[in-house]
């Protein structure tokens, strides 16, 4: 009863007539007033015509589970019989045209054709391809956490054969495990299981293998109560850090503060301890519109163990909106980072309206402004991290607030409470911060800041630099105090490039350090630069079943002849306040304002492993007035210069924000001295200077250079 195409006149003509034209015929006549339908007339087409295919079936592509229809145009004397075939074989029940498959299955895929028969013959269509797409990844089973007892310090065999995968099309699917074992070191290892089907669909699951129990229990690496004596109100954050306020294996530690704040023990109101209103806390009071961000970072990158926890009490400024918050960032590559800007870490914001946000990888919101119902603050926050190493391999993160599991992300099933951070952690500065956007001051407080960790043997610092022929750097290895208290411990240091740098006492690229029972928990070994290049020192083969933490120590060796003594300023920082002092090998025009990089424990933008251009030690200059007479200048003597040869001196420099209009840096040989002997010059004096109003900074890095020729 479908309308005939083009049949819109008073006369209906079929020329030529086909068997498919047969059947009931009627007409509907209509005008503006209404319509009328004729009676039905039956058209019977007579003939002895075999079947024919008037239009071929077309290719079809569908997803598994979707409906589809196969159809062909046919003609011939009725009655007609239909049979669809797949791969040349009849398909049971496929005897209509068109033929409907209500839910496509992988078994339906193939080449289909239609055979049409009647009393006078048969016709077969061309083949059409039916493709059923596979977009469903395999399912990994038995990827559950494993805990076994330690067999040997060098590794414990663990079978992972029970971890398998199935696919709805391929059936059993191979599983790729990283690491695959069979030997696992003491401590926790995060294993990644990946399965990929023949269509390229892939899925991953994560589980842990814990070899233990370790011979020592979890230890407190750092604890700060922020308690200062009752009469010491409103003091700098670094006040009395060594007088009972702090404890733990790594204490005491100072805090680095923002470059724009008072530094190295000088008081500023933005971050303080002993507040009149909030005694015994770390108090941030950012002020909108400026300065609206306050932060503090322990002057230590917590690389001792990749399995660690951070705890603290926090009370964000009450009664404000989502734009005012207190936050913590873990796994940051440098201090003072905004919680949403940490490159490879994780930020957790507690907003003034009792919402939380979780951010990773420089602005990727895992959870944004999530309402989290809690009792009135302060909140007791605990973040737990389980990882194999600080090398970017996957890490597991869990959070708790007042003992209640904290959602860290979402997926199609809802909230996620155990976060698989697929790119793990590489660094681990821990940053506490507070922010104000609403006009006026806000007050955020932190208390009882604690870093606990699975004890491990580790080397520190992760990066060093030296030059050929010098032994001005050393590598320090630390063992857990509770471990060495009861038994002797040894560990091997392996050197990747003995020809580039070597440890004192090293033989064949190996050095064994032994720690006597009841003896010191740290040992330092001098490093000798031997040739230009880079060497990596890695801990291995501990004599006890305890994890190896930290990172391999990388030593960069500059191989050029040393014309400038201590050109890298790689000297031990000056202890105590103000944290800087004279620079060995250099003369100083303003000994009270110029110096070598600040003491690590004092923190600051120029501290070791900070955001300065070199990343370790730097020299800094300060100018005290508006006139060149107050320029900061340091100078040294260039040695071993050869007449007629052109030399270039280069350096990195930066300036405090806002000082650009009054800033220049220069390097020049101020004078030369007569030859010390035939064919050589004694040297030339080198001066580095800055104009007035320049102070220490971490704003940008600019490469400068000058060439000269001794005559």
Features:
Immunoglobulin-like, 7-stranded antiparallel beta sheet, 711 residues, Jelly Rolls, mainly beta, 11-stranded antiparallel beta sheet, single chain, 62 strands, 1% helix, elongated, 2 helices
Your description of this structure?
With 711 residues, the chain is mainly beta. It has five domains: 52-133, Immunoglobulins (Immunoglobulin-like), CATH 2.60.40.10; 139-212, Immunoglobulin-like; 219-453, Exo-inulinase, domain 1 (Jelly Rolls); 458-558, Sandwich (Immunoglobulin-like); 587-708, no CATH class. The protein contains two helices and 62 strands. Strands 24, 25, 26, 28, 29, 32, 37, 38, 39, 42 and 45 form an eleven-stranded antiparallel β-sheet that branches. A hairpin with a 3-residue loop joins strand 34 and strand 35. The protein starts with 22 loop residues before the first strand and ends with a strand.
- At the third CATH level, what is the topology name of the largest domain? Jelly Rolls
What is the rounded Rg?
A: 38 Å
What fraction, in percent, of the residue positions are helical? under 10%
Mean pLDDT: 78
Based on DSSP secondary structure assignment, what is the total number of beta strands?
A: 62
What does this entry show, briefly?
The chain is mainly beta and 711 residues long. The protein has two helices and 62 strands.
């Amino acid at each position: 009863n479908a309308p005939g195409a083009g049949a819109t006149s008073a006369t209906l003509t079929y020329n030529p007539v086909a068997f498919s034209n047969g059947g009931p015929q009627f007409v509907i006549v209509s005008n503006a007033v209404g319509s009328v339908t004729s009676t039905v007339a039956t058209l019977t087409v007579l003939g002895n015509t075999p079947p024919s295919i008037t239009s071929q079936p077309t290719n079809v592509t569908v997803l598994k589970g979707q409906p589809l229809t196969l159809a062909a145009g046919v003609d011939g004397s009725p009655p007609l019989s239909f049979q669809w075939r797949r791969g040349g074989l009849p398909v049971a029940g496929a005897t209509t045209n068109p033929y409907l498959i209500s839910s496509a299955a992988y078994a339906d895929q193939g080449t289909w054709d239609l055979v049409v028969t009647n009393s006078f013959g048969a016709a077969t269509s061309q083949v059409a391809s039916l493709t059923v797409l596979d977009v469903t990844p395999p399912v990994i089973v038995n990827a559950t956490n494993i805990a076994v007892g330690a067999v040997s310090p060098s590794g414990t065999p663990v079978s992972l054969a029970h971890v398998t995968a199935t696919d709805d099309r391929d059936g059993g699917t191979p599983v790729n495990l990283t690491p695959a074992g069979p030997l696992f070191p003491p401590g926790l290892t995060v294993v990644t299981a990946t399965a990929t089907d023949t269509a390229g669909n892939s899925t991953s699951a994560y589980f842990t293998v814990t070899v233990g129990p370790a011979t020592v229990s979890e230890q407190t690496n750092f604890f700060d109560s922020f308690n200062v004596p009752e009469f010491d109100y409103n003091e700098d954050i670094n006040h009395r850090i060594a007088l009972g306020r702090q404890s733990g294996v790594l204490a005491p530690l100072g805090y680095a503060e923002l470059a724009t704040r008072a530094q190295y023990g000088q008081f500023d109101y933005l971050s303080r301890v002993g507040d009149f209103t909030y005694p015994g806390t770390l108090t941030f009071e950012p002020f909108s519109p400026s300065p609206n961000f306050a932060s503090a970072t322990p002057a230590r990158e917590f690389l001792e163990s990749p399995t660690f926890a951070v705890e603290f009490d926090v009370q964000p400024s009450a009664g404000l909106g989502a734009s005012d918050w207190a936050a913590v960032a873990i796994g940051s590559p440098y201090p003072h980072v905004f919680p949403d800007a940490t490159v490879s870490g994780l930020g957790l914001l507690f907003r003034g309206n009792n919402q939380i946000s979780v951010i990773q990888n420089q602005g990727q919101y895992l959870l944004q402004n999530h309402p989290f119902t809690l009792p009135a603050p302060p909140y007791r926050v605990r973040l737990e991290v389980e990882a194999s190493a600080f090398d970017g391999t996957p890490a597991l993160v869990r959070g708790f607030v007042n003992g209640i599991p904290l959602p860290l992300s979402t997926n199609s099933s809802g909230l996620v409470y155990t976060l698989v951070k697929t790119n793990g952690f590489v660094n681990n500065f821990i940053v506490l911060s507070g922010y104000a956007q609403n006009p006026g001051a806000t007050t955020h407080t932190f208390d009882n800041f604690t870093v606990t960790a699975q004890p491990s043997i580790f080397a520190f610092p992760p990066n060093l630099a030296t030059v050929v022929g010098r032994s001005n750097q050393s590598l320090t290895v630390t063992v857990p105090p509770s471990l060495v208290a009861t038994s002797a411990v040894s560990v091997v240091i392996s050197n990747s490039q003995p020809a580039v740098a070597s440890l004192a006492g090293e033989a064949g690229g190996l050095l064994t350090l032994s720690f006597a029972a009841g003896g010191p928990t740290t040992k330092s070994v001098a490093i000798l630069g031997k040739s230009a290049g880079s060497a990596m020192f890695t801990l291995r083969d501990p004599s006890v079943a305890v994890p190896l933490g930290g990172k391999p120590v990388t030593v960069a060796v500059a191989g050029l002849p040393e014309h400038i003594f201590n050109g890298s300023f790689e000297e031990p920082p000056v202890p105590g306040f103000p944290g800087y002092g004279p620079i060995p090998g250099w003369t100083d025009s303003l000994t009270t304002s110029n110096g070598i990089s600040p003491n690590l424990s004092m923190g600051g933008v120029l501290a070791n492993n900070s955001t300065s251009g070199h990343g370790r030690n730097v020299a800094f200059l300060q100018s005290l007035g508006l006139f060149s007479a107050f320029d900061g200048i340091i100078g040294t003597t260039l040695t071993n210069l050869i007449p007629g040869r052109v030399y270039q001196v280069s350096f990195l420099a930066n300036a405090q924000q806002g000082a650009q209009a009054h800033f220049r840096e220069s390097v020049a040989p101020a004078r030369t001295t007569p030859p010390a002997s035939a064919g050589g010059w004694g040297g030339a004096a080198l001066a580095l200077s800055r104009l007035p109003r320049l102070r220490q900074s971490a704003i940008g890095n600019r490469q400068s250079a000058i060439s000269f020729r001794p005559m």
